[in-house]
Amino acid sequence: MKAICKHVLAAVLAVAGSQALAQEVQDSNWLVRARAVHIDPANESTPLAGVGAGDRIHVSTKTIPEVDVSYFFTPHLAAELILTYPQKHDVTLDGQRIGSFRHLPPTLTAQYHFAPQASVRPYVGAGVNYTRISRVKLLGGAATLEKDSWGLALQAGVDIKLDARWSVNVDVKKVKLRSDVLLGGAKASEVRVDPVLVGVGVGYRF
Hints:
This protein is mainly beta. It is built from 1 helix and 15 strands.
């Protein structure tokens, strides 16, 4: 009888321990994701010096690595900080390359997660993007860009749970990113990059 009681007690403790561990993982506040993100600019621009047609200046598409860190205030509400390193983009005018620039676009969003306990967990978010533009080389140095851009960021995505910690993530963002093109210190055009960013990656809850 004593042996049976010991086995029953051990089984109960094992179940309780596994449930506590699952609850601990489930209630964890931190989620880190790594994504591959494709940047697809809108490529809208005003006429150069106010003359002729618009949309002549284009910024190249690009696929970049990205890391984001999310903190969950509640199971439904989270904040996400999106990070990468400075990215180089080519710039063309009427299809001809005129130079390049680099940009660093950290983005902070507030998110609402619709089904935090489900295996498929959709969410939406909104926030702000700050882009730092550097190493501008346009028209052999004759033209430059504004150094800073602030804009709205909108987001929708889904986490698909693999186990207690790992998940697959698909994420789409629309970011307002604009800059004036300066020739001789005077504004010659406004470039509306306004990219759509489509990301696929993995997440780890800890």
